[in-house]
Amino acid sequence: MTVHEPLYLKRMTPGTVEQHLERDPRLIVPVGTTEQHGPHLPLGCDTIIIERLANDLSAEMQVLRAPTIEYGVNAPTRVAYPGSASVRRKTLHRFLNDLVGSWEEGGVEQFIIITAHGQDPHQEALSTLRTRRAAVRTVDIFAASFETTETGSGAPIHGGEVDTSLLLYVDAQLVELDAATDYTPMPQTISRYHRGARGSIPGASPGSLGSPTLANAEKGEEIYRVIYERIAARVFGSGAPTRSP
């Protein structure tokens, strides 16, 4: 079986991009965050996970992959975490609208936006983009249930078992598991987190929600496989779309 490399847009000339778009007019756009996920995970946890997914999907499907957007709409916190950086919903929306408009003029007919941050304001910014004709699909990789102790109880995944397991699989050297601290939030805290309400990450928490001490790389590999296969089948399963006349 032929093993391909990801198709990095930023490494190509306009002519090469045009050739790829003539064959398959889709573009994968990874959108991450720079946000605390507890004392055990790096600020780029979401970004690192979706970059791996974008690379694997681009390589297998031979679909162009845009440079990563490394900032998103972070969950509000009661304390400041060094290094965390957020943008407003309107800022992310306008920024992506500008990029999508430029890429569409250059021949892209379908955008596949991949993110690992399920908070409502972040998702709203990505799912309401406007194009002239191109289709936009926003994929929240956590919009599914996983068979883990934490998610089985309905707990959130912000720096918890799922995030930590995934990063242990993707790049274990970035995880300081000895520093992981479990924090079981009240139901109203979970609701505030998803809505992006003020103080949704309580000051009493370690900056994460859930049970990262339950994480391991084997769980991460299984979760990654489920996410990857679901996206590959549901988003890319029909093959390259027919180019518009």
What attributes does this structure have?
245 residues; alpha/beta; Rossmann fold; five-stranded parallel sheet; 8 helices; 5 strands; globular
Could you characterize the architecture of this molecule?
It is a single chain. β2 (26-31), α2 (45-61) and β3 form a beta-alpha-beta unit. The protein has a single domain (12-234), classed as 3-Layer(aba) Sandwich (Rossmann fold), CATH 3.40.50. The protein has 8 helices and 5 strands. It is α/β, with parallel strands linked by helices. It has helices at 14-23, 45-61, 89-105, 120-127, 149-152, 161-171, 187-195, 217-234; strands at residues 7-8, 26-31, 64-65, 110-115, 135-140. A 5-stranded parallel beta sheet has the order 1-3-2-4-5, sandwiched between helices.
